[in-house]
Design a protein that fits this description.
The protein is of the alpha/beta class. It contains 15 helices and 28 strands. The protein folds into 2 domains: about 325 residues, 4-Layer Sandwich (Purple Acid Phosphatase, chain A, domain 2), CATH 3.60.21.10; about 200 residues, 5'-nucleotidase,  domain 2. The strands form 7 sheets. The protein has a 7-stranded mixed β-sheet with strand order 1-17-16-2-5-6-7. α5 runs antiparallel to α10 and α11 packs across α15. The longest helix has 16 residues.
């Protein structure tokens, strides 16, 4: 679509100064060459538009999740417009739109109620071409992921709209390092080759090797996940054998900038993506990353390495020049662009959202509670959050009488959105806890409970405790090891119901089914006995909100730093 002057001005306001780029050695002579009359230019311009960690956010996210650098951002109606603006009619034939995983899973109700079919449809409409799988693509298992790719109605819930059966993704998922154990073959194609003006570009898609540690075990049954560096280099070599020299990795693994880094900065980047990018062979030119929900724009080991935050609030615009003679990438530069809401909404996306809103019906707006103030995921110095503590309280309340539970713990990664002050709808509660986990109550000895709390300092994830739990963290203590977390000396003075925990006594503890399976690395919970699986965690949460209306934010004083 031709840009009006107003659209062009709006775009220029949001495109930051390019913060990352490189020119390969020897490129100057090629770049300066002038083709003879009738000859094709020596360089081919290719544009990549990239996103990651969309998580089904069709509508603009609420609260702080709907802003980036103090700009209201996100919403697929505006994302689609932004992608079209960045490509425009001149560049569009040379534009490839890609994503680095977690497009679905942990989604708001509007998408999750229909097994994320609305998100897949919306991203296809927006022009997405290729995507790597992320860990959340496995939330409902590999068979469901294949259905999402290939189409067909859900085997249990049927078609969301019988008049319009689900046809599958309009883009291709790639999964180079998720292998079917029985066959040794990748679950999905490991790579794809796209052509632009006769130039071939290879795209390798991968999720993090540690996916089994952060996904419900039933979701990855029958699969194994292999090392990102070894897998990336293997398929890069395979692409080169086919004459493909321009290679991009779509990687669902990432890093984090040091404090103060902006969306186009690379300030003290740390995290797995640094070692992965360094370990990749020189054949790989670009790494589009994700998973950490961070924004950064880096050059690592002569490779562009980017991430576009989360929820469709940013698009990464990557410009490559490829040598027509050799097929090599000669120059590369990138910029993260804010998906502001000051552009026209895409009409097709507006129609899609309206259609699924109608199918969803009135359940979304049903009030289940009310809060006296905002209750957020913001972590206190102890690692607790008011919302995490509230969920733990709700889980204990749901299991203390019938199951005899005396304490509950919630994993912080399972708390996906804040609660604003005022009435709480079912849809808002669902957005906080969208995983459809089940409450699981089990027996742990006092010694095992101590080991569980020590394991927090190995996994680097602080469990959110119910109000019945108190303990002190010895900041001078040493953490245990992955092999034996019980050797840690970080946790002191554990009490339940005000009484000191006896290492030899038995305690009934409630967690969600993800944690009970050892999720987030909490393997101690798999040692529990007398396990009883109860109802959905969301039901416990909404029941607690209803019974305790209005609900005030709990204090974050259950863990003391000593």
């Amino acid at each position: 679509m031709p840009r009006s002057s107003q659209t062009r001005a709006a775009l220029s306001r949001r495109v930051a100064t390019v913060a990352a780029g490189f020119v390969l050695a020897g490129a100057g002579a090629v770049a300066g060459a002038v083709p003879a009359a009738g000859e094709a230019p020596p360089l081919v311009d290719v544009q990549l538009l990239a996103l990651n960690d969309f998580h089904g956010n069709l509508e603009p996210p609420s609260g702080s999740s709907g802003e980036i650098e103090d700009v209201p951002a996100g919403g697929v109606e505006f994302l689609a417009t932004q992608l079209a603006m960045l490509a425009d009619e001149v560049q569009k034939p040379n534009t490839i739109t890609v994503a680095a995983g977690d497009l679905i899973g942990a989604s708001p109700l509007l998408s999750a109620a229909f097994h994320d079919e609305p998100t897949i449809e919306a991203l296809g409409l927006a022009g997405l071409d290729l995507a790597s799988v992320g860990n959340h693509e496995f939330d409902e298992g590999s068979d469901e992921l294949l259905r999402i790719q290939n189409g067909g109605c859900h085997p249990e819930d049927g078609c969301a709209d019988p008049a319009r059966p689900y046809e599958g993704a309009g883009f291709q998922y790639l999964s180079a390092n998720a292998f079917v154990t029985e066959t040794g073959e990748p679950l999905l194609p490991p790579y794809a080759i796209e052509k632009v003006q006769g130039m071939r570009i290879g795209f390798i898609g991968m999720t993090l090797e540690g996916t089994p540690d952060i996904v419900t075990q039933s979701g990855i049954a029958g699969l194994e996940f292999r090392d990102e560096v070894e897998t990336g280099n293997r398929y890069a070599a395979e692409l080169q054998e086919q004459g493909v020299e321009a290679i991009v990795v779509l990687l669902h693994e990432g890093g984090t900038q040091a404090g103060g880094g902006g969306i186009n900065d690379c300030t003290g980047l740390t995290g797995p993506v640094v070692d992965i990018a360094t370990g990749f062979s020189d054949a790989i030119d670009v790494v589009v990353s994700g998973h950490t929900h961070q924004a950064y724009n880096c050059v690592i080991d002569d490779k562009i390495v980017t991430s576009a935050s989360s929820f469709g609030r940013l698009v990464t615009d990557i410009d490559l020049q490829i040598d027509r003679a050799t097929g090599d990438v000669i120059t590369a530069k990138a910029a993260n662009v804010i998906v502001g809401r000051d552009v026209p909404a895409d009409a097709d996306q507006t129609e899609l959202i309206g259609r699924y809103r109608t199918l969803l019906g009135p359940i979304a707006s049903e009030e289940v509670g009310e809060t006296t103030a905002a209750i957020t995921r913001e972590a206190a110095p102890s690692g607790e959050s008011a919302l995490g503590n509230l969920i733990a309280d709700a889980q204990l309340a749901a299991t203390d009488d019938e199951q005899g539970a005396v304490a509950a713990f919630m994993n912080p990664g399972g708390v996906r959105a804040d609660l604003d002050a005022g009435p709480v709808t079912y849809e808002e509660a669902f957005t906080v806890q969208p995983f459809n986990n089940y409450l699981t109550t089990l027996d742990l000895t006092g010694a095992q409970l101590d080991c569980l709390l020590e394991q927090q300092f190995v996994t680097e994830r602080i469990l959110q405790p119910s109000a019945s739990v108190r303990y002190t963290v010895n900041q001078a203590g040493a953490p245990g090891t992955a092999a034996d977390p019980c050797t840690g000396t970080k946790v002191d003075a554990i009490t339940i119901g005000g009484a000191p925990v006896d290492p030899a006594a038995t305690y009934r503890i409630t967690v969600n089914s993800f944690l009970a399976d050892g999720g987030d690395g909490f393997s101690v919970l798999t040692q529990g006995t007398n396990e009883v699986v109860g109802g959905p965690d969301l039901d416990a949460f909404t029941a607690y909100l209803t019974a305790n209306r209005p609900t005030a934010p709990p204090a974050t004083d259950r863990i003391t730093l000593g």
